[in-house]
Design a protein that fits this description.
- By secondary structure, the chain is of the alpha+beta class.
- It has one domain (2-213).
- The chain contains five helices and nine strands.
- The chain has helices at 65-83, 105-118, 136-148, 157-165, 192-197; strands spanning 2-3, 7-8, 40-48, 53-59, 89-94, 121-126, 174-180, 200-202, 210-213.
- The strands form two sheets. Strands 1, 2, 3, 4 and 7 form a five-stranded mixed β-sheet that branches. Strands 5-6-9-8 form a four-stranded mixed β-sheet.
- The longest helix has 19 residues, at 65-83.
- The chain is globular and about 65 Å long.
- The two termini are 36 Å apart.
Length: 220
């Protein structure tokens, strides 16, 4: 799982070439200077290695830990639960930084809530710092999404979701996507007391990168 590069939503140039009828070129803006008023799409992906299938939750705002875990929750709701009805545990492989970084308290708190809600164990293995390109989602999902929408301006969110969902490969990749309209706040603080209450067990090998979260027991 990981966040794909954020994309500007509007009539902006998109890298790559695409065949079009002569004289029917799509006009785009000549510059894409950073502008807080320009909407952005935040594609957060979950890739199932065994089934060669992808899930992309397209956010409209901040890429936060809360958004990252909600993306996993939506994958489980729309794809994972039906595919793995007997699952009692979940293994997540993620980068060490960004919205799913190993240092983020909010990431772990939200995973704890998800674990307790679904009543299954979650094991997280972070790639060591500087090795994000080892993440298979980059090569088996994100790269093909980029190829599929090459040369096409991402003019609106509906276009982005449709192009992501239309991504396929000869080896059988399938992708589903949804637009997440929820607003996620930045700067949410997690207290030391909340962190201490988490049912989290670090592994013996680099416990800061590898750990297991089990459901919390309901107070009697």
């Amino acid at each position: 799982m990981d966040t794909k590069k954020k994309e500007l939503v509007g009539a902006y140039k998109n890298a790559g070439r695409e065949w079009r009828p002569k004289g029917d070129a799509i006009e785009v803006l000549t510059h894409d200077f950073p502008d807080p008023e320009v909407p952005k799409a935040v594609p957060y992906g979950v890739y199932d290695i065994g089934h060669n299938s992808g899930w992309v939750n397209v956010g409209m705002g901040a890429d936060t830990a809360e958004f990252a875990v909600e993306s996993i929750r939506q994958w489980w709701k729309h794809m994972g639960q039906a595919r793995y009805p007997r699952a009692r545990s979940l293994l997540i492989c993620a980068d060490s930084g960004g919205s799913n970084g190993y240092r983020l308290h909010l990431w772990k708190r939200e995973l704890q809530a998800f674990s307790t809600q679904q009543r299954f164990t979650i094991t997280v293995c972070h790639f060591p710092p500087g090795t994000s390109k080892w993440n298979k989602i980059e090569h088996r999902l994100f790269s093909f999404i980029t190829l599929n929408w090459r040369g096409r301006p991402l003019t609106e969110y509906r276009t982005i979701v449709s192009l992501i969902a239309a991504t396929t490969t000869k080896t059988g990749l399938t992708v589903k996507a949804r637009l997440d309209r929820r607003t996620y706040k930045r700067g949410i603080k997690v207290s030391a007391k909340e962190m201490k209450s988490l049912n989290l067990t670090p592994h013996g090998f680099h416990g800061e990168w590898n750990y297991t979260i089990q459901p919390q027991r309901s107070p009697r």
